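User: Some background: our group keeps a shared notebook of sequences we're curious about, and every so often someone picks one and asks for a predicted structure to add to the entry. Today it's my turn. The entry only has the sequence so far, pasted here. Could you supply the structure so I can complete it?
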Amino acid sequence: MSTDTHDRLLIIDFGSQVTQLIARRLRELNVYCEIHPYQKVTSEFVREIAPKAIIFSGGPDSVTREGSPRVPQDIFDMDLPILGICYGQQVMMHQLGGKVECGHGTAEFGRAFVQASNKLEILNGWFEDGDEQVWMSHGDHVSEIAPGFEVYGTSPNAPYAITADIERNFFAVQFHPEVHHTPSGAKLYENFVKLAGFSGDWTMGAYREQMIAEIRERVGDKNVICGLSGGVDSSVAAILIHEAIGDQLTCVFVDHGLLRKNESEEVVGMFRDNYNIQLIHADERELFLGELEGQSDPETKRKIIGKLFIDVFQKHADTIDGAEFLAQGTLYPDVIESVSFSGGPSVTIKSHHNVGGLPEKMGLKLVEPLRELFKDEVRALGRELGLPQSFIGRHPFPGPGLAIRCPGEITTEKLDILREADAVYIDQIRKHGLYDEIWQAFVAILPVRTVGVMGDGRTYDFACALRAVTSVDGMTADYYPFTHEFLGETATRIINEVKGINRVTYDITSKPPGTIEWE
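Assistant: Of course. Here's the predicted structure to add to the notebook entry:
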């Protein structure tokens, strides 16, 4: 899939932990951008993708180290606006004739305040109420700016916090405008892309039309198979592809018996009834639960589920004549990771993103209409396609399903109890208007029974743990601070309404050291 019809901004990644935040800031301004590691960026590469502007990211290295990351020197002769951030500023200064040094007491980490020393177009809206708060994270510092640059902002430990060569439209800042702790950072990016002449044409409406045309051209009259999990990514991909090629698309929905209450019926109903999409509902509950019987090791359970999913998917996909393409809900963060700064291998993609090597095994070509989107953009595209908000805003659900919320051996009894408890919990969260504030919420049923008293009788039932976290990307998370009243009310409902549970706990572990899921 290409985006040749859009203005394009190139982000050269020097390994910063927050490079993706730069892209997010720009996408929010309706500017299409791509992140590429510095190793990939040659002069020919830049000319080929023809960006309208370039941003150099931050990074962990030191330009004073021999062999540290650089950009091709002639990038500075391409008449393109360039913004350098932190390490990116130091690369600009070093390659254009300035000086960068280590130490000498000018390192800055964390919150700092920048004072204006001159007016500058990309700083319109800054310094209106005095000094600007920014977020610094640098050990090295610019000790001498390059010829043609002037100073436009300083901080106590960064005399060249903001510099620019306005004749060449080169701008460089020592801080990170992309992070939350630089409150006016979004305005700086807005000013930069405005100065660079971007039209702000990156909208989901435009993307939808472009992808429909490209899918039709790529697929032609062939058939496409889509592994549908019921998650947002695969669902949006399926509906977009169906809009492009209609009945040439067949979705395969594998019901492994580890879904939430009524989830199978909801997914099948939405796609088969509301969208009239050809759907194979593979009811394989007995197969999966039979293979999982007696298994308690979490990694063994995951491997069993993953292998069976591939086998079942292939079995049903083989019944579709003329299928030459496999649709996946791969997102842009997956693509970025696969060409990572460090050159490392791609992260393992969730099962609903990638059906485990099937493209090669089955000789299929890929259709990945979401590979240029971030998660929030997928949700925006879903709204553009008319998916109900209740579906678009669903919390993430893992590929192995309830198996990893059922530590120890999986049984039908435990799964039934878990589904009922989870349904009550989510109902409580929705009832109190908290669902959209929470990244993910679920119940885990514990592999222990506890003594309780109900009425005049003794009980010996399962304990469960409630889990709810806030997060941006799932990489780190903190527990959601429910009130004691909410927790008490929820525990009472679960114990009263769910037979088999007599004790409720709340998990307040952050990630790290814990994980979001229990297994």
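Suggested note for the entry: DSSP finds 15 helices and 20 strands in the chain. The longest strand covers residues 440-454.
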